[in-house]
Amino acid sequence: MVRDALRSRKTHILLVVAGCYLAWELWLTIAAPFKVVNFASGPEKVNILVTLPFPPERFHVQRFQTYGRVSGTQENAVEVRGVKRADLTTVARPYWVTRVEPIQPGG
Fold it and tell me: What are the Cα distances from residue 5, in Å, to 1, 11, 17, 36?
């Protein structure tokens, strides 16, 4: 019975889909730290500018509110204040985030 299941076309398709999903998740995890730039040591909570390849929509703003207080948007970016340093790579993990950087003083 197991041998028949392993020879099944449906099983092969399922295994390929599962492999692609795992590769995608691995790529998101590996790419996230490279999207976080220019953070010097400092306080536990930081103010960040999350850049997207498109203007942010309500979904994106709500997603970032789970990590800090959204204080506004710019052309293709969302300002989030009070984000824990430990959450920076988590914020950068979605494929639609291209860059996470500190908000410049006066910004």
Answer: 6, 7, 16, 44
> In this predicted structure, what is the pLDDT of residue 106?
62
Q: On the CB side of 69, how many CA atoms lie within 13 Å of its CA?
A: 5
Task: State the Cα angle at 22 between 6 and 30, rounded to 5°.
Answer: 155
1-107 is classed CATH 3.40.50: no
In the DSSP assignment, the letter for residue 36 is B
Beta-ladder partners of 84 = 45
Cα torsion angle, 11, 29, 96, 71, sign: positive
Percentage, residues of the chain above pLDDT 90: 77
- Helices (DSSP H) in 1-107: which residue ranges? 2-7, 9-35, 58-65, 88-92
Q: What is the mean pLDDT of the chain?
A: 91
Are 48 and 83 in contact by the 8 Å Cβ rule? The answer is yes
